[in-house]
Amino acid sequence: MEIRRIAGALGAELSGLDLRKPLTETQAAEVRAAYLAHKVVFFRGQPLDPAQFVQFARLFGTPVEYPFVKGIEGYPEIIEVKKLEHERVNFGGVWHSDTTYLETPPMGTMLLSKIVPPYGGDTLFANQVAAYEALSDTMKRLLDGLVGIASSAKADVSKTREDRLKTDGNQEAKKEYTAHHPVVRTHPETGEKALYVNTAHTAGIVGLTEAESAPLLNFLFEHQIKPEFTCRWSWQPDCIAFWDNRAAQHNPVNDYHGFRRVLQRITLAGTKPV
């Protein structure tokens, strides 16, 4: 396996593996080490069918179902992340860490590209460990012990789900999910501290009024996605992105109106943030 970093902050492309075949224990350990070190890893030229995709995902965790959208036929843990030719809003098209409104958010997410537009549709990623480490010591002390309020119902991200709920919605999902998580979480595997708020889901801070929490959160929302903390991935068919939901955020760029973009997604069970 070869590892090629794609940016200074995070992200590495891994080559030399055929993910249609079962990985050895050594290969799986090397992929996981790269994933933890680089926060997001990418593979090109991997035409996996759903069974192979699930098999690969299970090497690193337990796939879990997404609450709002039904899985594909025969594979409830795989959802389609798609935007059709006539649609103007892309699914999840805002900076976020996946489903932080759940009491136990996923540890990681995998996307497998099936149909990509002729241009556009890149995904941005941001390193939340680097964002935390760049804060002043005074700001770090201020954030220590603060608890964020995460909600699935914030307006900007709710809008990005509307098209998918019409076509693939799970009618059994609750109207809103909420959870409390530390503003700064400690990574359970690396021990690194990372910002764990995001503009899509973090609605407030426990114990603060909206007027008190809004300026602090808005500062963090702008700080955590500065260019020096990010990388950008350009998709081709049959690519996989696998990112650490505990240490990275992502944002799919909505710049391909009139074209279809279809990816398959698996999220892996995590632990309660601390």
How would you sum up this structure in a few lines?
This protein has 274 residues and is of the alpha+beta class.
Number of domains: 1
Specify Rg, calculated over alpha carbons. 18 Å
CATH topological fold name: Double-stranded beta-helix
CATH class: Alpha Beta
User: How much β-strand is present in the residues?
Assistant: 25-35%
* CATH architecture descriptor: 4-Layer Sandwich
Globular, elongated, flat, extended or rod-shaped: what is the shape?
globular
Number of strands: 16
CATH H-level superfamily title: Clavaminate synthase-like
Low-confidence stretches: none
Distance between the termini: 33 Å
Q: Specify the helix fraction band.
A: 10-25%
Structural overview:
With 274 residues, this protein is α+β, with helices and mostly antiparallel strands. It has one domain: 4-Layer Sandwich (Double-stranded beta-helix), CATH 3.60.130.10. It contains six helices and 16 strands. Strand 1 and strand 2 (12-15) form a beta hairpin. The radius of gyration is 18 Å and the shape is globular. The mean pLDDT is 95.
Strand and helix map with partners:
Blueprint: E1 2-5, E2 12-15, H1 25-38, E3 40-43, H2 50-57, E4 63-64, E5 79-83, E6 108-115, E7 123-127, H3 128-133, H4 137-143, E8 147-151, H5 155-168, E9 178-182, E10 184-186, E11 193-195, E12 202-205, H6 210-223, E13 230-233, E14 240-244, E15 248-252, E16 261-268
Structure characteristics:
single chain, 274 residues, Double-stranded beta-helix, alpha+beta, eight-stranded mixed beta sheet, globular, three-stranded antiparallel beta sheet
